[in-house]
TrEMBL record:
<protein>
    <recommendedName>
        <fullName>4-hydroxy-tetrahydrodipicolinate reductase</fullName>
        <ecNumber>1.17.1.8</ecNumber>
    </recommendedName>
</protein>
<dbReference type="Pfam" id="PF05173">
    <property type="entry name" value="DapB_C"/>
</dbReference>
<keyword id="KW-0560">Oxidoreductase</keyword>
<feature type="domain" description="Dihydrodipicolinate reductase N-terminal">
    <location>
        <begin position="1"/>
        <end position="94"/>
    </location>
</feature>
<dbReference type="GO" id="GO:0008839">
    <property type="term" value="F:4-hydroxy-tetrahydrodipicolinate reductase"/>
</dbReference>
<comment type="similarity">
    <text>Belongs to the DapB family.</text>
</comment>
<comment type="pathway">
    <text>Amino-acid biosynthesis; L-lysine biosynthesis via DAP pathway; (S)-tetrahydrodipicolinate from L-aspartate: step 4/4.</text>
</comment>
<dbReference type="InterPro" id="IPR036291">
    <property type="entry name" value="NAD(P)-bd_dom_sf"/>
</dbReference>
<dbReference type="GO" id="GO:0019877">
    <property type="term" value="P:diaminopimelate biosynthetic process"/>
</dbReference>
<keyword id="KW-0520">NAD</keyword>
<dbReference type="InterPro" id="IPR000846">
    <property type="entry name" value="DapB_N"/>
</dbReference>
<feature type="domain" description="Dihydrodipicolinate reductase C-terminal">
    <location>
        <begin position="109"/>
        <end position="241"/>
    </location>
</feature>
<dbReference type="InterPro" id="IPR022663">
    <property type="entry name" value="DapB_C"/>
</dbReference>
<keyword id="KW-0220">Diaminopimelate biosynthesis</keyword>
<keyword id="KW-0457">Lysine biosynthesis</keyword>
<keyword id="KW-0028">Amino-acid biosynthesis</keyword>
<dbReference type="GO" id="GO:0009089">
    <property type="term" value="P:lysine biosynthetic process via diaminopimelate"/>
</dbReference>
Amino acid sequence: MNVLIVGYGRMGHMIESILRSRGHNIAGRVDPSGAGDYESLRPDLLKDADAVIEFALPSSIRENAEIYADAGVAAIVGTTGWDARRDEIKGVIEDRGGTYMWGSNFSIGAHMLFILAEKAAGLINSAIQYDIMVNEYHHKLKKDSPSGTALTIAEKIINKSELKSEIVTDRLDRAIEPHELHVGSVRGGAIPGTHTVTLDSTADTIEIKHTARNREGFALGSVLAAEWLQGKKGFFRVEDFISESLGV
Ligand SMILES: NC(=O)c1ccc[n+]([C@@H]2O[C@H](COP(=O)([O-])OP(=O)(O)OC[C@H]3O[C@@H](n4cnc5c(N)ncnc54)[C@H](O)[C@@H]3O)[C@@H](O)[C@H]2O)c1
């Protein structure tokens, strides 16, 4: 594929290296900071492109979506921070007959953890001697807690569990109620992101743990998604690609 990279920051650089390692060509890099080949997106940059991968900031999410759809180029968008505009962008893509996939987490490993967490929550509906909890570690510069990934895991557990119905992220100065799912957060060091789901009984402990080493998992997922999107039309979520490729 010939791929235009929009947003040439930490993710854009990693995406370029994954694209090259899989034998794809770079049609160009767009970044207003001057870090890329072009400072703004223009329709002619997509003339010879098969796909565009965007991990940028959300300020031009609509303008970019219009350009991608009009050019008939498959767009993979990992840019976050535009949740409230999802329906608007879906409308743009569908009205113009475009191809667009968005996702707040392109890591296939993280999605495998979501699936495993959901499965674990279902298992303890029949093995009621087990309790379930979630914990996450992130680097000392992270400004929010819990992580979005930890919250997604917790929501998957709540949806599946007959025991747990409320997510609790605070420090507890009391015993936890059986229906509460505790999600803990620890900050320090340079940890890119570690998430653990723990099942515990008086007899044993089971841990399901995802440890991100770097941003490579997100970048690889976006490139595989671009390959999957070739020849398709419509507005997709990353979950559409992941569930088909994992066969779940
Ligand atoms: N969906 C996922 O799996 C996932 C994973 C990691 C990061 N992200 C998101 O991807 C985005 C980029 O992350 P990052 O770590 O590379 O950040 P970064 O700060 O390293 O890079 C962002 C780059 O985008 C550029 N940019 C800003 N506005 C732009 C525009 N309109 N067009 C093109 N480029 C523009 C900036 O100049 C910067 O170079 C963020 O929204 C982040 O939350 C998503």
